[in-house]
Amino acid sequence: MAPGSRCLLLLLLGTLGAPTLGDPGPLEDVVIDRYYIPKICLREAQMGDFIRYHYNGTFKDGKKFDSSYDRGATVAGVVGVGRLITGMDRGLQGMCVNERRHLIVPPHLGYGSIGVAGLIPPDATLYFDVVMLDIWNKNDKLQITTLSKPERCNRTVENSDFVRYHYNGTLLDGTPFDSSYRKGSTYDTYVGTGWLIKGMDQGLLGMCAGEKRSIIIPPFLAYGEKGYGTVIPPQASLVFSVLLVDFHNPKDGVFLEHLEVPESCKRRAVTGDFVRYHYNGTLMDGTLFDSSYSRNQTYNTYIGKGYIIPGMDQGLQGVCMGEQRRVVIPPHLAYGENGAGKHKIPGSAVLVFDVHVIDFHNPEDPVEIETVFRPEGCNVTTRNRDFVRYHYNCSLLDGTRLFSSHDYEKPQEVTLGANKVIEGLNSGLLDMCAGERRVLIVPPHLGHGESGARGVPGSAVLRFEVELISMEEGVPEGYLFIWHGEPPANLYEQMDLNKDGGIPADEFSTFIKTQVAEGKGRLMPSSDPEKVIADMFQNQDRNQDGKITPDELKLKSDEDQEKIHEEL
C-alpha cells in the first residue's frame, strides 16, 4: 500500500539533524535534512495539527514509488496521531509553511519487514522530499492583522451592512487563487447574512472605510473538506489581504457633517430654493470622481424638487449661505446598484460631497433692504423718474468683489425707473434720503438672471452697499420738460425771440433755459442738460429743417390726446 494511500501526514515538534544523505548504515531514527527554511516562520507543525503537503517518495537508487504531484493533489491529514507511518509522522513535525525537507525513513519506522506488495519491498529504506503547504488546528481562530487604518473612523462594519472591498486571496503558502484587482472591480456583498464564507463574514466586522487588513481563515471557516473548484484544495487555510473601499446599511440616511457654519445665519435653505454651490465629490476611499472647482463654475439647482440625487436634495436642506458641509450619501439615495459610468461612480458606491454654499434664493424673494444709516430730518426721498447720484460696492454673497463706483472719478448717475439699472437696485434706491446708506441683497430674478452678465455669474445673488449722494426731482415718463404752472397762452410768440416766424435751435435753447432759471419749469434731470434741450428741439422740428414753425410746436399733453409724439 502506498504511503499516500495510508494518509501520509502529521507533524511533530523537534527537528533531527542529519549529516548527509549518503548511506548512513542501519538507522535508529528518521534522518531530517531541512534544506530550505523560510525566513519567516509564524508557526511550526505540532502533534494534533492538520497539515497539507506535497511529497515525492523514492528508494535509495532514486526510483520513485509514490508522489502527490503525480496525483495532482496535496495530502491532507493530522500529524502525530498514528495515521501516517511513524517515520513520516516524526519527520513532518516542527515544519514551517513553505519549508522543504529531505527525510530518510528506516524500515522499522516505515513499512518494516512486510513492505507493500508490489510497491515497497520488505526492509526498504524510504526517501521523501517534502514541502509543507498548510498548518492549522481545530482550535484555531480567525487571525486578523490591521495593516493600515485611517485617522478618521466614524463608523465600522456591522452585520447586515453592505460592503465594497478589494482583496488578494492566497493559500497559506502564498499561492494566489483569486483577486478583485485582477477583475478590475470591487467585491460587493452583505456581511453577516451568509453570502460569504464564515471567516470573511467575521473578518470584515469592525473595519473602517479605507482600512487594510490581513485575514487568515482556517479551513473550517472557509471551504473545508470540499475546497472550491480547482483553485482551493480541500482543508486549505486562506489568506486575504483586504482593502475596505466603502460600506453602508440599507437603512442608512444621509449623514451630515458641518465643517464650517457662519456665525451669522439669518436664513436656511428650504425646498423650492435655488442654490449655487461648489463641491468636491469623492468615494469613501478618497477617490475624486467630480468637482465643480475643476470647471471653475458653481453647480446651480433647485433643492427638494428632484433635479438632483435624493441624498443631495436632503443634504442641502437647512444650509446657510457660506456654509461648508460634508454630505455622505448611501447608494440607495445616490446612483444605486448601477452607478454612473460618466462620473466614474461604481455601482453601490457611497458618495462623499464636500459642499461650499455660495448663495441661494427663492423665486418669490423681494429685494432685501437693510438701512445702515439714515440722516435725521429726512423729509424728501427718492421716487421713480428722479435723477440720483450714488456710490456703490457690488459683491457676491461669498465676498467676491465685482464692481465699485469708487473705482471711477465720480458717483454713478441714473434716472430711477428708466430701466437703466437692474430692477433690484432700482427698487433699493427708492425712498432714500441724500446721505442715506443701505445694504441691498438682490436675488437673480431682480438682478442679472440665469445668464448673468459680464463678470457676474448666472443666477447669482448680489450684495450692494449703496450711499445716496444727491437727488433731483424728475419728470413724468415720456417728458423731457414740465411746466410748474400753466404754460404761456402765447407760447410760440414768446419762444420766437426775434419775431421772424421761425424758431431755430439757439432761440429754443435760450427760451427753455430762461424758463428753468425763472422757476417756471424744469428739465428732465441729466448730467447733460444741453443734450436734453437738443432732443426736445429735434422732437419739435418735425420736418427736420432746422427750425420750429407754429404748426410743428405742440405741448406733450396735446400730443398725448392726439396720440402723436412726445414733447413739452
Automatic annotation (TrEMBL):
Keywords associated with the record: Calcium, Endoplasmic reticulum, Glycoprotein, Isomerase, Metal-binding, Repeat, Rotamase, Signal
Subcellular location: Endoplasmic reticulum
Leader peptide range in chain numbering: 1-22
Alphabetized GO MF terms: calcium ion binding; peptidyl-prolyl cis-trans isomerase activity
Domain EF-hand, first and last residues per copy: 490-518, 528-563
InterPro entries associated with the record: EF-hand-dom_pair (IPR011992), EF_Hand_1_Ca_BS (IPR018247), EF_hand_dom (IPR002048), FKBP-like_isomerase (IPR051989), PPIase_dom_sf (IPR046357), PPIase_FKBP_dom (IPR001179)
EC number: 5.2.1.8
Region annotated Disordered, chain positions: 537-568
Domain of life, per lineage: Eukaryota
Organism for this UniProt entry: Origma solitaria
Matching Pfam families: EF-hand_5, FKBP_C
Keyword field contains Transport: no
Domain spans labelled PPIase FKBP-type: 48-136, 160-248, 272-361, 385-472
Amino acid composition bias (Basic and acidic residues), ranges on this chain: 542-568
Gene Ontology cellular component terms for the protein in this record: endoplasmic reticulum
Organism taxonomic ancestry: Eukaryota, Metazoa, Chordata, Craniata, Vertebrata
Catalytic activity: [protein]-peptidylproline (omega=180) = [protein]-peptidylproline (omega=0)
Protein name (Swiss-Prot/TrEMBL): peptidylprolyl isomerase
Cited function: PPIases accelerate the folding of proteins during protein synthesis.
